[in-house]
Design goal:
The protein is about 20% helix and about 20% strand. By secondary structure, the protein is of the alpha/beta class.
């Protein structure tokens, strides 16, 4: 069994958002198409409180129950069966979807006999990378669609470094052009 995890495709991470990724919205059509190839599609989202230590490092973003925390309106949510909220405490960053507080992602996947986890979404060097690394630690064969992720690139080379770290750890890269049917 395999699952697609859409990581943090929220308004605040897309152009115009408080922590917008340049061209972050351009991966939406790719992700909507990818979702058609999976029986199990889930999503994670930053769901921060109004005050959190996370905002000492980052601009205020994805505050729960705000427009910025909503999924991008062009993301087709119909195939999504479960949403995993992360970064919900005042004292955590919540980069990885495996840090979700509303439901344990690892147990959820294992209960459904998922062996392969495919990732897409935002952002390459933070939430996608941390989720991929935790997926490997949990024993899932982990894939990242490189044409369905986008970086923040705070510093030149951040995205390349993240991709290198993921690959060295055992994440398998592929593109949406590879048929999974």
């Amino acid at each position: 069994m395999r699952a697609l995890l859409i990581v943090d495709l929220q308004n605040d991470f897309c152009p115009g958002g408080s922590l917008g990724v340049k061209d972050g919205h351009k991966i939406l059509p790719v992700i909507n198409e990818l979702a058609k190839d999976f029986r199990l599609v889930i999503a994670s989202r930053d769901w921060h409180p109004e005050e959190t230590v996370h905002f000492e490092k980052w601009p205020v973003h994805c505050v729960r129950n705000t427009e910025g925390a909503e999924f991008h309106p062009e993301l087709n949510l119909r195939p999504v069966t479960q949403i995993f909220d992360k970064g919900t405490a005042n004292s955590d960053d919540g980069y990885s979807a495996f840090e979700a507080t509303n439901l344990d992602l690892e147990s959820y996947l294992k209960d459904r006999q998922v062996e392969e986890l495919y990732l897409c979404g935002l952002t390459t060097e933070y939430c996608v990378k941390e989720t991929a690394m935790d997926a490997l630690k949990a024993g899932f064969k982990t894939f990242v669609f490189t044409d369905a992720i986008a970086p923040v690139n705070l510093n030149p080379g951040d995205a390349e470094q993240a991709l290198s770290e993921m690959q060295e750890a055992g994440v398998i890269f592929l593109t949406s052009k590879i048929s999974l049917r």
